[in-house]
Amino acid sequence: MLDSKLLVIKIGSNVLTQENGLPDLERMEELVAQIQELTALGKKVVLVSSGAVAFGRQTIPLPEKLNPVFKKQIWASTGQIRLINQYQNFFEKHKQPVAQILVTKEDFRDRKHFLNMKNCVQALLSQGILPIINENDTVTITELMFTDNDELASLTAAMINADTMMLLTNVDGIFTGNPSDPDSELIEKVASKMPEVSKYISASKSSFGRGGMLTKYAMAKKSADLGIQVVIANGKRENVLGEFADKTLRCTWFEPQKAKHGAKKWLAHGEHYYVGEITINEGAKSSLTAEVIRSLLPIGIIKLEGEFSKGDILLIRDETGHKIGLGRAEYSSKVANERVGQKNQKALIHYDYLYIFDHD
Ligand SMILES: Nc1ncnc2c1ncn2[C@@H]1O[C@H](COP(=O)(O)OP(=O)(O)O)[C@@H](O)[C@H]1O
Ligand SMILES: N[C@@H](CCC(=O)OP(=O)(O)O)C(=O)O
Which residues of this UniProt protein bind substrate (predicted)? Predict the structure, then answer.
């Protein structure tokens, strides 16, 4: 494990609930105390916490047949108050001010929104205030939803250039089979050149979780590729954060790759957020996938689809339709359409705002 200065800690619903579904306030208070110990060591922490729905469900009984969307909205909106109140009470005992940030997927799509959010988190951290982030569950329904808070944590870690992301759940990490099966072993390290470990992961979830281990794995892998070390560990474990700081923690650790710079990290998560699509010719493809990557000029573009503005994310495909990367538009689709295929035109995607997918 590597040293850490700025970390995103994600706490899953299961960590904060007991088996009977009631909030596990003792655990929550413990984790708050441990976060304070990390802060005392000079580390900066951003918390991504689930638990709103689980806390709401406990206090607001609803008829079985009520529309599930309404149920989620009612439990999330009532539960989030309880969740954040508990955090505030526990952190107050350590004289630690906290802030609540509720976000949607839209906030990560638009680069201006994204930068506003990033600046806000940084401003809070610079004043010694601990941000607690959750999804704004009352307005995010279906396609507006994050897969789960593991995705939100991973976007947050990329946004603030965190060096570490910890996903705290109710198992010690990724096992070679069902974690409750005594023959299953914990996978302690995941490196980029290792064979896929996703084959071990079943779609089963713990009782109150949303995404399951598969999204945790996918998000951990993506973050590690961007240069962020990732730890999947058991948030129910005594002194989990202390052991992390001492580098003695039993967990699954994802080795980070060479760090990518900020804008590329934003783009790397843009696969679900692109507004337009461009198809490029073979010459442009070899130039973009070469060792020394160049900007994408209109001469290499064959086709443009969708209406986009300057700053929007575009998906890049080759002539066979294969997705090869993402980039940020330097100008609108209106201007781009006038320049397609032409020589001596300004790049539609600048090198600094280009993210090429790993190709096999
Ligand atoms: N190979 C595996 N190793 C570890 N956990 C697994 C594996 N396959 C499935 N899981 C399940 O993933 C669950 C954790 O994911 P999830 O329910 O989303 O938790 P959280 O609420 O903390 O986000 C574990 O409780 C476990 O049941
Ligand atoms: N935003 C939701 C959390 C959804 C979620 O991703 O839960 P989990 O899989 O436990 O991290 C809530 O606060 O209830």
Answer: 50, 137, 149
Whether 135 is in the pocket of ligand 2, judged by its Cβ within 6 Å, is yes
Least confident of 121-130, 172-181, 189-198, 339-348: 189-198
Residues 294 and 327: their CA atoms lie apart, in Å, by 12
Cα separation, 238 vs 341, in Å, equals 61
- Binding site for ATP, by residue number, is 10
Predicted complex ipTM: 0.96
Name which residue sits closest to atom 3 of ligand 2, judged by CA: 50
- Sequence spans of domains, the chain: 6-265, 274-356
> Residue 35: exposed, middle, or buried by beta-carbon count in 10 A (0-12, 13-18, 19+)?
buried
Among all bound ligands, the one having the nearest atom to the CA of 176 is: 1
Among the residue ranges 94-103, 195-204, 248-257, 295-304, the one predicted with the least confidence is 195-204
Architecture of the domain made up of 274-356: Roll (2.30)
Pairing of strands 323-329, 313-317: antiparallel
pLDDT one-digit tens code per residue, 84-113: 999 999 999 999 999 999 998 888 877 778
